[in-house]
Design goal:
By secondary structure, the protein is mainly alpha-helical. About 80% of the residues lie in helices and about 0% in strands. It has 16 helices and two strands. A two-stranded antiparallel sheet has the order 1-2. The longest helix has 30 residues, at about 95-125.
Length: about 425
């Protein structure tokens, strides 16, 4: 059954609404200090909440594909929206850190990750010829939600207080995600064999994917891309003050710069990857990031040089987050996209904390940036040499073809 262009545009619209609602969790830093002021908790203890959210988000992607198979995309996303909204609404009643960790951390993160990967993968299936562009639209909407709600949630905190801000935030997000789910339709199973660089690719199961070396190499470069971007996002203001010598207010502008270039990279590099090749784009981003972190580490930084490097890293990070779902689809097929990408996506969760752990062990920004530069060079080398898995036909299928050829010699087999 064919789907009209109008219906497919409604599916895109529904996915954008859902992804914008999901992206609002990246406004968490706005809540840290107000929660400290209200309850007297340590800032570091409150900030752990978002680390839990991030890990729960990545962890959920391991199960989201199976849940989608059982419930269907619309029901799953609708339920995830309800759970996420209720998690935030109940966070307005917390009185202890463990309740905050459970509700705003684990429950919100798990619901967010479940809806994120399934709606993204489903939309890619609807547009198999424009995977990079459509991934950019979906992931870009996620970033736009973060940017937009920076002002909405900031205004709520100022006007009604931090606890009531959770209440209104939860209601708004619940309506957005649950409402958007009604516009989403399950993509039809993709049966045709796709090709990348002239090499045919099949639909791999998770087990089959994990038997290929490509799965582990993709994980390494995705981990590097995520750690590079996420570490900078978390400490960009501090880097501006300590390495570039900027005042706090000026360095704070880097936070908005990161959000803008992160979203721009998602839209531009995703579409570009459809034209020139995804691994080519990814390989260039690693060279750019390696150069940028090296400049941040060793150059005599000024205002322009600092913001230029920050913008470059944010742009490349946003692009890589967008391109990788399409790369996984190119390598391992569309049929099991949610499940396969869920495995590779664990590089995001691990990368979210790896930079901080490395910084704690090595003692500062410069040694950590040096490690990141080395990893980016290694990932560049992997990206320029990585090839699609070679299809090896099973003996059973070969024997079957031989029998058919013997029975019907006039029949050509593809």
């Amino acid at each position: 059954m064919k789907t009209s262009t109008g219906n497919r545009l409604l599916i895109v619209l529904g996915t954008i609404i859902v992804q914008m609602g999901l992206g609002t969790i990246y406004t968490w830093s706005l809540f840290n200090q107000p929660l400290v002021d209200k309850f007297g908790w340590e800032l570091s203890s409150v900030a752990i909440t978002f680390s839990i959210t991030t890990f729960a988000l990545a962890f959920a992607t391991l199960f989201a594909g199976k849940l989608q198979d059982k419930w269907g995309i619309r029901r799953l996303v609708g339920c995830a929206g309800i759970v996420l909204g209720i998690g935030l609404i109940l966070s307005s009643q917390v009185s202890s850190l463990w309740m905050l960790y459970l509700l705003a951390g684990f429950i919100v993160g798990f619901a967010d990750g479940t809806a994120y990967i399934t709606t993204l993968s489903n939309l890619i299936k609807w547009f198999p010829k424009n995977k990079g562009l459509i991934s950019g639209i979906s992931v870009g909407a996620y970033g736009t939600g973060s940017l937009l709600f920076k002002y909405i949630n900031g205004s709520l905190i100022e006007s009604v207080g931090v606890t009531q801000a959770f209440l209104f935030w939860g209601i708004i997000v619940l309506v957005m995600i649950f409402g958007g789910s009604f516009l989403i339709r399950e993509a039809q199973a993709v049966s045709e064999v796709s090709k990348l660089n002239g090499v045919a690719t099949k639909d791999y199961t998770v087990k089959e994917m994990l038997k290929t070396k490509q799965a582990y190499l993709l994980f390494v470069i995705f981990f590097t891309a995520c750690m590079s971007g996420l570490y900078l996002i978390g400490i960009v203001k501090d880097v501006g003050v300590s390495l570039a010598g900027l005042d706090i207010a000026t360095a704070g502008n880097a936070v908005a710069l990161v959000a803008i270039f992160n979203t721009t990279g998602r839209l531009i590099l995703g579409a570009l990857s459809d034209k020139v090749g995804r691994l080519k784009v990814v390989s260039v981003t690693f060279l750019v990031m390696a150069t940028a972190v090296t400049i941040l580490s060793f150059a005599d930084l000024n205002y322009g040089l600092f913001f230029g490097c920050v913008a470059a890293i944010a742009f490349c990070f946003g692009g890589n987050i967008t391109i990788f779902p399409a790369i996984v689809a190119d390598f391992f097929g569309l049929k099991n996209q949610s499940k396969n990408y869920g495995i590779i996506y664990q590089g995001f969760g691990i990368g979210a904390l790896a930079g901080s752990f490395i910084a704690a062990m090595l003692g500062g920004f410069v040694p950590t940036f040096t490690v990141i530069a080395v990893l980016c060079v290694i990932s560049f080398l992997i990206a320029i040499t990585l090839k699609v898995p070679v299809q090896v036909e099973s003996p059973e299928r070969t024997n079957s073809k031989d029998k058919m050829r013997h029975m019907r010699p006039d029949t050509k087999l593809n």
